Structures are given as C-alpha cells and as structure tokens.
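Sample 3 of the quickstart, ligand 3,4-dihydroxyphenylalanine:
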Amino acid sequence: MEGHNAQDPTEQVESARKAFEQEFGRFARFIEASAELRLPLSEADSEQRSLKELRTRHLGKKSALAASKKLIGRVGPDARAAFGQVVQSAEAEIASALDQAEQTLGGILQTLRNERESIDVTLPGRRPRLGHRHPITLLRERIEDIFVALGYAIEDDREIETDFYNFDALNIPQNHPARAPQDTFYTTDGFALRSQTSTVQIHAMQRRGAPVRMIAPGRVFRRDTPDPTHNPMFFQVEGLCVDEGITMAHLKGTVAEFLRRMFGPSTVTRFRPSYFPFTEPSAEFDFSCFKCGGQGCRICKNSGWIELGGSGMVHPNVLRAVGIDPQRFSGFAFGLGIDRMCALMYGLDDIRLLFENDVRFLEQFE
Ligand code: DAH
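Result:
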C-alpha cells in the first residue's frame, strides 16, 4: 500500500499502461489468430464480452488510470501540464488499442453470423418423405370408384353400435345362433363394436328411406384370435340396393359387373345357396381366380374359384324394421371382406401384415 502511494504519479500511469498491455496482449494474439482460423461463434462472443470487461477495468471509473487523472490537480503547477500529457496519452493509447480490437472482433463476429445464417443454394433440398396409401385403402378406393360409376352412394357410419343395428334390425333376434360367430367387443352396457358393416344398411334406410343404393366400406370387429387369416379387426364392404321391382337378377348382374371391372372382363361369378338371417334367399358368391383364370393354382387352392362374400334378397323383416313396405319395395344386399381380397391380390401369406404398420411393408404398394 505504502509503496503504491509513494509511487511517482508518472510511474503510476506507466504501470497502469503496462498492466493493460500485458492483459491486452492475449486479445491481440487471439484476434490475429482468429482472423485466419475458423473459430466457433460462441467463442468469439465470449471474447467480445471479455474485451468489454477489459475496457471497464482499464478505462472505467475505478481504473488505475482514473485514479491517476484525479492526481493531475494535485501535481505541482510546473509538472502539471507534462503529467496531464502523460495521462492523456496513456488513455488515448489504451482506448485506441481497445477500439481497434473491438472493431476487428466485431468484423469477425459479423462474418461468422452471416455464415451461419446464409443458405447454401447448391445443397440438395431435403425431400419431404411422401407417405403411401395403405393397401386396404387402395383397394377400398377401387371398389368405391366402381360402385360410384354404377350409381351407388358411399356411406360411412359408426363403429360402436347397439344390438338393434348389429343384430335385431337385421333379423337376428336375441339367442339366435347367428350371433355366436359374430361375438364382438362390448363397451359400456348396451354398446358393442360392430361385427359387420350390415349395420349401415339399417342406418342408410332410416336416413334415406327407399329407393336407396349404397355401399359402406368400414372396419368391423370380432373376438377372433389373430392368425394368418384372422384378425380381431378387419374391413368389409356392404352393398344395398332397394327399389320397386328389384330381383335376384339385379343382384347377380351387379356383383358380376363389379367383379368384371375389378378383375377383368373375362371374370366369371358363381352363386351358391347359403343362409343369412337378413336375406332370403341368400347366396355366397365366388369368382373365377384372377391369377389362373379358373385353371387352378396356388392362390385359388387349385379350385379355380375364389370365395368372396355373402349376398341375398333383403329379408322383409329388415325392411319392416326401418319402416319400408316390403309389399312395394324389394332389394338385394351383399357383403365382402376387403382384407382377404387384399391379401390374395398382393400375395400376402399373413393378413396381420396389413395391421402392423411397418413402413417397409407398406411402402411396397402404390
Ligand atoms: N354381414 C355378413 C358377414 O359379416 C356378410 C353379408 C352376407 C352381408 C350377406 C350381406 C349379405 O349384406 O346380404 O358375414
């Protein structure tokens, strides 16, 4: 302390100048090097902050130089002017060194920031990854196109149903054995996931009355254990046509035309008598194998035929359930599974592949 106070004011200034020079040297070297080297922006930023601190330390109100300035008035009159000069020139020297360093560093920072923000227009763009439509969607859309061309409306309806729509209105009373193979998943009391798209027949007739022509593609649910040909959730398409004078001939003609448009003009359709509670008479339909044309192959298990769906003339009880007069109107209905058809057409040996959502699988269809 004593030594410092006793120091000659000129020497004091000199030592302040030296102290600055010593600290500043590091910056000068850094700035020089960084003009050549590429340094990270964050480092240049922190360097700029340190430089500001350096200025405060050496030119600020609490700096040694500021203390020396206060001494000017106390120096004897003959030495005052000379001392004033010394202080001033030290201050000017430090200030100009700092100014220059700040300017250079500022320039470097600007360049770095520009570089970071600039866009290299020669870089190839990042392609948005295009999705694919699911194979079931592709098939559903083809089916829809065909039926729309035949004058059918597309109906979309709820997947959670009451017993009335899933069974009762479709002429499947409580305890009817036909309920058993369609055991489904129950939600809250009185509600269940629909086990067939036939429910949409009822909704459509309630909404539109007769005449009506519609198809309803959609998801259905059954309590099946998953295996290569079963999944507890799968897709069906329902068809319904109700009008005056509709006969079995209309059913056969429509299904046959649909399958010709789907699988080619030489496709043959076959109807086999069957039973469904909501149709009378009922028939299942098969079509000649799209792969071998009926010769017999792996796909049709050598039979030449592929079984596709059920159909029939709408049961009068179903028409009555929705307030349509069966004396005046008649109709046909049909239903088929999309997943099985999809698996056959794309040669899938396991329908569960359709529901695993593995993009490597899904990407293969378009
Ligand atoms: N709903 C039936 C099922 O899931 C399929 C079906 C058969 C629908 C005959 C119909 C039909 O519209 O007439 O097994």
